[in-house]
Inverse folding.
């Protein structure tokens, strides 16, 4: 069997005595497209940082393309950070940002070679933001911002693409576009690991999910994994799933009350008697 | 007019001073771009005060000024970095403690020795008359070394300044880049002390990049503009200093402040023009103001 692109063996990581993630073993094969889901504080970002080599596990090992990372970044991995972490006032153009992705291949001079420029232009073209190349990064729309940083990552020609919450902070339409773009890239052979808060988007767009809450609760296709037992264990809450027109939906179970149970007269002046 | 402009050149002190100011202006403009974009403006101010302690100590021990101030400044920079990371103190607080303590060492030594008040004043407020041929060569050396550094580490410096965590993931040796920049900054401050004075260096490091930032959204252009603005600022300041007989450091900084105000005006004019062209639906996001950058 082929060597996995990513492999975690009994990985534990913690600050001090409390582990943030504990005894995690998982692997991803070439061409896999997987999402990492779990509540806030479940260790999603920590797990990404372990795969990126930004953190070294307290126990266990993280392998990327067979190399034990030990807290060093792998040249085979490229990363798309959350858009909120970007300094949008920094004086760089889209082209300058994208070129950063090629830093491992570029020569010693400060300016890009003709080959560098061609590669960057082709990538911008592929992601449909070539007309924005000379513009400042602040001039981009939400979806274009995401694509610019995706272009930077792809220019590094990675075996594994890692994204932190690529669908956070954009509207539904843009979210849909980003997920379809990632699916296209995946069909072209890119292995993708991303975190997401949005279970419904994960259920409809991701072929594979890892459910994380300090430990790995479950993994598999969302159709099989997103059942009430697993979700309750992952989210420590009361989750409900239902199907409509063949699509899986996930929601928190209503708390057997409506807003009027909490605020009897929610609309001032409304002619309604409070329930006794 | 030509005679008027050439008149100061008959004095050697002016020729030396002008060369020194021109190179210091360009150097501060170049290194300042990274200082400002990393929100480290206060570090320039702090380091110059720290280096002052080293300069005085070097004088007392009769070491070379550059070695004393340089080592001291570099150690202070490392200490600031270490303290801020290790003890979860804000970098600004760490700078406040370490550099002021270092400055106080200098003041304490002076109050003990008491015999070089003119040098003391020169270090604090700059004295371009005191710039010797040898100083000009040292400044030229630091300028050349910094230019070589920025040329060969340009891409790495840009990536680390933009997003250091991500730069590391893409294989940039972040610690090395930081150390090299700290060295360049310490060297910049020490060679600038003589011309500009401890108290005014921060302005020379901060103003040219901010003026440049007002004029462009591109990093490479900002770097170019900042160097040019720094150099022009220094030349204009030197002439003014000679003509109105005011301390050179002060005139250079005041000319810089004037350039900053002009760049603000220019920007708001451009924005107004852009607003006139844009349709009612277009939203113009404001650029971050100079005041924010100073914070």
């Amino acid at each position: 069997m082929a060597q996995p692109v990513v492999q975690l063996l009994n990985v534990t990581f913690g600050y001090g005595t409390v582990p943030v993630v504990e005894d995690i073993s998982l692997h991803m094969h070439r061409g896999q497209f997987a999402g990492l889901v779990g509540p806030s504080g479940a260790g999603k970002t920590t797990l990404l940082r372990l795969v990126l080599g930004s953190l070294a596990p307290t126990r266990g090992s993280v392998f990327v393309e067979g190399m034990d990372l030990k807290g060093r970044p792998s040249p085979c991995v490229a990363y798309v950070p959350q858009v909120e972490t970007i300094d949008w006032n920094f004086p760089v153009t889209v082209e300058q940002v994208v070129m950063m992705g090629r830093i491992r291949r570029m020569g010693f001079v400060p300016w890009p070679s003709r080959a560098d420029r061609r590669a960057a232009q082709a990538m911008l073209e592929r992601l449909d933001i070539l007309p924005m190349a000379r513009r400042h990064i602040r001039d981009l729309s939400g979806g274009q911002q995401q694509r610019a940083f995706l272009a930077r990552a792809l220019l590094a020609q990675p075996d594994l693409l890692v994204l932190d919450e690529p669908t956070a902070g954009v509207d539904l339409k843009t979210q849909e576009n980003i997920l379809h773009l990632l699916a296209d890239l995946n069909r072209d052979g890119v292995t993708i690991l991303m975190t997401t808060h949005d279970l419904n988007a994960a259920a409809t767009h991701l072929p594979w999910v890892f459910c994380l809450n300090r430990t790995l609760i479950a993994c598999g296709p969302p159709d099989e994994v997103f059942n009430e037992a697993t979700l309750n264990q992952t989210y420590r809450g009361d989750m409900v799933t239902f199907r409509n027109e063949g699509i899986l939906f996930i929601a928190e179970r209503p708390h057997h009350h409506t807003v009027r149970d909490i605020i009897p007269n929610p609309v001032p002046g409304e002619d309604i008697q409070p329930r006794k | 007019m030509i005679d008027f402009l050439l008149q100061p050149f008959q004095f050697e002190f002016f020729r030396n001073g002008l060369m020194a100011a021109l190179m210091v202006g360009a150097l501060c403009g170049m290194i300042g771009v990274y200082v400002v974009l990393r929100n480290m403006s206060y570090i320039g101010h702090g380091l110059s005060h720290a280096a002052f302690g080293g300069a005085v100590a070097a004088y007392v021990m009769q070491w070379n000024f550059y070695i004393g101030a340089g080592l001291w400044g570099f150690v202070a920079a490392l200490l600031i970095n270490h303290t801020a990371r290790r003890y979860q103190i804000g970098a600004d607080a760490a700078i406040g403690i370490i550099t002021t303590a270092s400055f106080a060492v200098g003041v304490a030594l002076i109050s003990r020795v008491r015999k070089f008040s003119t040098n003391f004043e020169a270090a604090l407020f700059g004295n371009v008359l005191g710039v010797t041929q040898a100083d000009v060569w040292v400044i030229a050396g630091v300028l050349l070394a910094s230019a070589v550094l920025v040329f060969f580490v340009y891409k790495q410096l840009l990536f680390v300044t933009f997003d250091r965590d991500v730069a590391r993931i893409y294989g940039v040796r972040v610690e090395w880049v930081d150390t090299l920049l700290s060295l360049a900054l310490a060297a910049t401050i020490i060679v600038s002390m003589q011309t500009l004075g401890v108290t005014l260096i921060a302005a020379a490091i901060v103003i040219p990049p901010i003026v440049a930032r007002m004029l462009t959204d591109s990093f490479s252009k900002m770097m170019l503009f900042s160097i040019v603005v720094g150099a022009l600022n220094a030349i204009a300041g030197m002439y003014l200093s000679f003509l109105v007989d005011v301390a050179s450091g002060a005139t250079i900084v005041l000319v810089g402040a004037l350039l900053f105000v002009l760049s603000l005006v220019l920007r708001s004019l451009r924005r107004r023009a852009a607003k006139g062209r844009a349709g009612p639906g277009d939203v113009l996001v404001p650029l971050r103001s100079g005041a924010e950058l100073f914070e």
Summary: The interface with chain A takes residues 37, 151-152, 154-156, 158-159, 161-163, 165-172, 213, 216-220, 222, 285, 287-288 of chain B (CB under 8 Å).
